[in-house]
């Protein structure tokens, strides 16, 4: 089947992209690795020995960056509906993290360690219908925030991809209620035409929820 003009333009943009070339050179699985690297350079959210949860991790670009910083004493639990090739010292859990069984596996992998940071580069499959795509993207953000509230230690941090549009202001208010400080980041490696930004929330205020699967199932 012949490729469409749109497909040809995407392929040309992709292979001409300097961050794609850098990822190939540096051994990263995705150009998205540089988005996390830029946030790390500015905000130092990753430190050796931390416990980190990476949502929507496939193909593993963010997990690669995080695991290199965390080192041997760190703990990184990655999860995605899609398969992901293994990365040394990364525990990968395939499945929908909103399912009770998958959430229980994440908790088991955390093994009682306080979670210092939750990161998420999730995005829905885009249909091209902006209103529908925005609604799906915000839904994923809400689910990631809910998981973060259940696993983060008081004082922990949360980094998530988010799109400006319907539901953004309400979500921002919810995050500000849970965290001491909220900032927006637009890495240089994020394409100019993309509406994506990264919300960085620091200093989780904590809550009264027990971090266990039973509490999750009862919600």
From TrEMBL:
The keyword S-adenosyl-L-methionine applies. It comes from the Bacteria. The keyword ATP-binding does not apply. SUPFAM superfamilies: S-adenosyl-L-methionine-dependent methyltransferases. GO terms for molecular function: rRNA (uridine-2'-O-)-methyltransferase activity. S-adenosyl-L-methionine binds at residues 60, 62, 80, 96, 121. One of its GO terms (cellular component) is cytoplasm. Keywords: Cytoplasm, Methyltransferase, rRNA processing, S-adenosyl-L-methionine, Transferase. The active site is at residue 161. Residues 28-204 form the Ribosomal RNA methyltransferase FtsJ domain. It is an enzyme of class 2 (transferase). It catalyses: uridine(2552) in 23S rRNA + S-adenosyl-L-methionine = 2'-O-methyluridine(2552) in 23S rRNA + S-adenosyl-L-homocysteine + H(+). Its EC number is 2.1.1.166. It is found in: Cytoplasm. Belongs to the class I-like SAM-binding methyltransferase superfamily. RNA methyltransferase RlmE family. HAMAP family: RNA_methyltr_E. Specifically methylates the uridine in position 2552 of 23S rRNA at the 2'-O position of the ribose in the fully assembled 50S ribosomal subunit. This is Ribosomal RNA large subunit methyltransferase E. It comes from Pseudomonas mangrovi.
């Amino acid at each position: 089947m012949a490729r469409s003009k749109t497909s040809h333009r995407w392929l040309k943009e992709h292979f001409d992209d300097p961050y794609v070339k850098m990822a190939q050179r540096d051994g990263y699985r995705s150009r998205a690795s540089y988005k996390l690297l830029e946030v790390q350079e500015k905000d130092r959210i990753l430190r050796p020995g931390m416990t980190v949860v990476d949502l929507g991790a496939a193909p593993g670009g963010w997990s690669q960056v995080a695991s290199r910083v965390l080192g041997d004493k760190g703990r990184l639990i990655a999860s995605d509906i899609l398969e992901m090739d293994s990365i040394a010292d990364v525990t990968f859990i395939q499945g929908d993290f909103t399912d009770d069984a998958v959430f229980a596996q994440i908790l088991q992998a955390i093994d009682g360690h306080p979670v210092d940071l939750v990161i998420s580069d999730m995005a829905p499959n885009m249909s091209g219908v902006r209103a529908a795509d925005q609604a799906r993207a915000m839904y994923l953000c809400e689910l990631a925030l809910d998981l973060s509230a259940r696993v983060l230690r008081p004082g922990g941090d949360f980094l998530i991809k988010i799109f400006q549009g319907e539901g953004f202001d309400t979500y921002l208010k919810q995050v500000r209620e849970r965290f001491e400080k909220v900032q927006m980041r637009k890495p240089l490696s994020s394409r100019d035409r993309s509406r994506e930004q990264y919300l960085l929330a620091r200093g989780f205020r904590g809550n009264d929820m027990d971090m266990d699967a039973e509490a999750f199932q009862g919600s």
